[in-house]
Amino acid sequence: MSHPTSTADLLHTASQRLVRTVDSLDGDAWARPSLLPRWTVAHVLAHVALNAEALAGVLTGVAHGRPVSMYASQDARDGDIAELGAAEPAEIRDRVFASVTRFSDALAALPEDRAGERVERTPGSGTFFPAGAAASMRLREVEIHHADLDAGYAPADWPDEFTIRLLDHVAGHFTDHPAGTSGGSGFRAEATDLGRTWEFGTGDATVTGTGHELAWWATGRPAYPGTTGPTSADGMLPRANAI
After folding, report:
1. Engineered SS bond to 209: which of 143, 162, 213, 234, CB 3.0-4.6 Å?
2. pTM of the model
3. Strand-pair partners of 119
């Protein structure tokens, strides 16, 4: 029986795949649209770099007994992405590469007895997460946004272990939509290739597809380019929470 891969190992491999993709981008690729509305490839990679820097700062603060928020504010976070996203590709590339090492070092330096310490996303937001969750958070950022680049790496390339983790996470954080909204409320997701099902809230609808199709769609995104995406018996897909 194979043993589950550690989050740190999954993240290391995912980060190296991302680095290879970034290193292969030509000059024109940075300015083209990504799969995220209003963001170019450069903006997505700026976000990926800044996210790693922010999480590294959180881990370093906790390790030194000085917890800090992940971002100074939502506006500051958005402004930093806009600013770095407009920089020269070489600068963004360097920030992405450096941020991978910075986060890895900060994660390795986090004392085990401080992993449960809660940190706030932005001051006064009321959104907290334990420092020990940073590795899983970062793994989702790397894998999902790597696919968002539409640069040759797609959800179909995700390892099954990550796909399962992502569906576990999204299903566990699903919020039923009020009656009367488009798509209804809860549903069941059946992965045809993984032999697994996930319950998203409570509801009678069943959505079927491969694991990676379901996981990509469950983040609130439309079907990945070149794929049909998941299906349901009545042809109407419920709504999933965007992440």
Report:
1. 213
2. 0.93
3. 129
